[in-house]
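Please check this:
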Amino acid sequence: MKENFILSSFEYKRNINKEEKLALATYASKHVVNPGETIFLGAGTTISYLGEEIARICKSYSLKIWTNNIGLVNLWLTKNEKFFTFNFVGLVAGEFSSKNMSIINLTLPMTEIPKIIIGSPAISNKGLSADDIATQHQIDSLIKRTKEIIIIADGTKIGNTETYITRSARMIRLDIKKHKRYLMLTTEPEKNKNLFEKEIQRLQQMGVETKIV
């Protein structure tokens, strides 16, 4: 019963702003993921849509994918089993979190990850933030190991701030000075467009590349 409730909660969250998430996933699968890459796919429902698009469009790309997204792995196993034929998928070790169907307190088997693709529940001129401290530790650990950070979040997340700063604006600026690349893919929201535009400008001033899909 508990497992069914967790899966139902994950599916419910996937349906929130579904069109925007699908648009972001489609764009990212075509323009961000390249054949033969090693990537890390983070937690969250938007990333789960991206994973489905990767299985559909990039199924013979010979990708090496690490992830902590249990919801995504479950989707691959039930809908895209053939994806494993040409691509390696590694599930990182850690503790299971039912909150977003993911592994937290990660134990990563690698010292470097060329590219990480993550979602974020809140992005503003203060940086990236989330509503749980586990995500804070996870993002910090991943960013230390990569040179390229792709953030995928629909427009309703822009301008928001949650309790825990997962990557402050100051740290993002320092990362960029160290030649780490930040690219944010987002969508234009139906409401609060002035706030959205101001936040996008501030993020660009920080050095974050942005693409409105």
User: Anything to note?
Assistant: DSSP finds eight helices and twelve strands in the chain. Residues 1-6 have pLDDT under 50 and may be disordered. The radius of gyration is 16 Å. The domain at 2-212 is CATH 3.40.50.1360 (Rossmann fold).
